[in-house]
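Ligand-bound model needed. beta-D-glucopyranose.
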Amino acid sequence: MTSRFPEGFLWGTASAAHQVEGDNRNCDWWEFEQQPGRIANGDTSEIANDHYHRYREDFALLRELNQNAHRLSIEWSRIEPSPGEFDARQIRHYRDVLGDLREQGIEPMVTLHHFTSPTWFASKGGWSAPDAAHGFLPFVHRVVDQLGDLVGLWCTINEPTIYAANGWVFGEFPPGRKGDVIGLYRVTSNMRKAHELAYGAIKRRWPDAKVGLSHHKLLFLPASDKRRDRWAAQTSQMALDRWPVAPGQLRRIVEATSDFVGIAHYWGQMSAFDPKRPREQFIRRFNVPGRPVTDMGLSADPSWMRTVLNELRELGKPVYITENGLATGDDEWRARYITETLANVLLAIGDGVDVRGYFHWTNTDNFEWARGFGMRFGLIEVDRKSLERTIKPSGHLYGRIAAANALPD
Ligand code: BGC
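Prediction:
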């Protein structure tokens, strides 16, 4: 087996504005964080990593790690603080950010929506409101028009089903609703429309740009070979993998109009048929026995990456791994996990999947939404008091792999 990756492979990390920038006051997440009991340990994003001001330092570290790509999001609530009012200063800020990346030889992949929305949009019903997709569009047009010359890779929406489930079913994200399955489908349906409108808007303005979205692929495995457990795994998987299309039927998100398939994979779970759980569709989900459990409470295994990628082969499109990583304070595990996951990416490439790049989640330890700052996914540690950055051994390892465009022998 070759240990080399294809020529031109993108080596990057992924991040999201609200998790790193700091002082992002105009969005629904900021409000949500102020409500007692929402975030673990009473954390709030506050100054986060002050990436808004320290982006040059952060990108220099990426350069030091031989990165040739970086996925980041543009914060809608900064660009459009009230409906139809655009802040030219913020657009300039993101021009500087993207310009700096380019100067460092790092290709940006820009996400237009990564879990945060302006408070004005959220207060009108947010993504469950009937005209949500059209509410998002003016921001998209503005960004595409004024930043598009600096961007070759776009990711319209981050993880629609995770976003909708956490906000409308589990209550972990704003608006904090629980058990609202109709709301969930409204949200994913609107996000599908928003994706298609954004896809069209980008391609009309920049025909050469490559546009996709990031789909979160938690892998559901059957608890046994029994038919009812296989049904349970399939049902869990379909609920995560599909969204409503035009006349109400559900379709796989990875089949959306796009130039590439973006896939985020972190973990897997078992599914078993359980007649005692009518409220959970008669399915019991639990961690995979014998597999290590990350600090997020879910089991991980590097070999699942090959399975996830192989499912995309029939689509015949380029694939970017838009996120993959481990929440752990055990950096040696992270290093092992990276090497073994990448070995599985190589196997999938050998199987015929056209994987063009890998974005590790994440460069700097950051604000992990409802879990606060306790979760450590980063290749770079950030001291919470001084905000000083220190590259972890796993970061150096990833940097060597990127430089070699190959796994170590
Ligand atoms: C999200 C990130 C998040 C990561 C780790 C992904 O679902 O896109 O924002 O930090 O998972 O939980």
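DSSP finds 13 helices and 15 strands in the chain.
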